[in-house]
Specification:
Layout lengths: L1 H12 L2 H10 L21 H43 L15 H46 L6 H37 L9 H12 L6 E3 L3 E3 L2 H20 L6
Antiparallel strand pairs: 1-2
Helix pairs in contact: 1-3, 2-3, 3-4, 3-5, 4-5, 4-7, 5-7
């Protein structure tokens, strides 16, 4: 887990500089932050004002990217231990480090209930964050794709490269995260199903445990009624990007300049 966290931090640590480098190389780009400054007595072309605008841009990029990094790192620190516990509660797991007493019906029910309650409390807040990030990533991908396809022949090479990298990076990273969340949910289902292999002392214990088992729900990333991530979420995300891009081209692309 330590290696995963170090790799995640190292990968995202320098990403905010990509925007700064882009605008330094493309000072005339319409989205350059210096265009916000009123063009009075040459303020827009003043070196000091350009430097201030680039510093502000770098700061906002750091806030945005490091917020994403915080979400990814905290998610890793949370999911890895939970997956280890779920593996210990899975009767079909190939490797188990805990003592066999943990997998007795009374102990297993207590431990899984604790994990489920913890996960429920975490998802009360994290589920909303997941939904917000999912919507933000989807809209940014659509914006990059639409801008590239609509203005491919008129867009300068620096902007084309930046939007292409942004779109590809966001889609790849978010697809990986959706796949991890989907596998987490799938493994939770397998864990519950594996309890049919539990050894019971008598029929009464088996009947009591069976009633408790029917009331259990698999753990899932997200918030019920708002957004929940399953294995199918990856396909839905990619299909929504493709459909949304072409719909935008067919509607907004027809409007006259």
């Amino acid at each position: 887990m330590d290696v995963m966290v170090v790799l995640e931090v190292s990968a995202i640590l320098i990403l905010p500089l990509s925007s700064t480098i882009f605008y330094i190389n493309s000072p005339d780009n319409p989205t350059h932050p210096r265009h916000i400054i009123p063009n009075i007595v040459g303020l827009r072309d003043n070196v000091l004002m350009i430097s201030v605008s680039l510093i502000f841009l770098t700061w906002t990029a750091c806030v945005a990217w490091y917020a994403v990094m915080l979400f990814i790192v905290v998610g890793t620190v949370y999911l890895v231990p939970v997956m280890i516990v779920m593996r210990e509660l899975n009767m079909n797991a190939a490797t188990q480090l805990a003592i066999p007493a943990l997998r007795r019906p009374n102990q297993l029910a207590r431990e899984f209930t604790a994990v489920r309650l913890l996960h429920k409390e975490v998802m009360q807040t994290a589920g909303l964050v997941v939904g917000f990030i999912h919507g933000t990533v989807s809209h940014l991908c659509l914006f990059c794709n639409f801008a590239l396809l609509k203005n491919w022949n008129t867009m300068d090479s620096n902007t084309t490269i930046l939007l292409t990298v942004w779109s590809a990076l966001m889609q790849v990273v978010w697809t990986i995260l959706l796949e991890v969340a989907g596998r987490f949910h799938k493994y939770s289902i397998k864990t519950i199903k594996s309890w049919k292999l539990l050894p019971f002392r008598d029929k009464r214990e088996a009947k009591t445990f069976g009633k408790w088992k029917k009331a259990q729900k698999p753990l899932i990333i997200g918030k019920e009624g708002f957004i929940t991530l399953r294995r199918i979420s990856v396909v839905k995300f990619l299909m929504s990007i493709i459909k949304g891009t072409f719909r935008a081209l067919l509607t907004l692309g027809r409007r006259k300049e």
